Amino acid sequence: DPQVVTGSHDTTVKFWDLAAGNSHSVTLCL
Predict the structure, then answer these.
(1) Apex 20 CA angle, 16 and 23, nearest 5
(2) So what's the pLDDT on residue 13?
(3) What whole-number distance in Å separates Cα of residue 6 and Cα of residue 8?
(4) Res 25: pLDDT
(5) What pTM was estimated for this model as a whole?
(6) Which residue stretches of 1-30 are H helix?
(7) Nearest alpha carbon to residue 20 among 6, 30, 28
């Protein structure tokens, strides 16, 4: 059940989303 791991999964998604966002922003700045 996805709801069982919502907490850790949400944190992981936010982490990678932030990492991807930072990488994308850095690429755009360069």
Answers:
(1) 140
(2) 75
(3) 6
(4) 62
(5) 0.35
(6) 6-29
(7) 28
Domain boundaries, the chain: 1-30
Report the pLDDT value the prediction gives residue 9, as an integer from 0 to 100.
Answer: 67
pLDDT tens-digit profile of 1-30? 555 555 666 777 777 777 777 766 666 665
Tokens read off for 7? 């907490």
The rounded distance, in Å, linking the Cα atoms of 13 and 2 is 13
Token representation of residue 28: 């755009």
25: Cα separation from own chain's centroid: 14
User: HSE on the CB side for 29, CA within 13 Å?
Assistant: 6
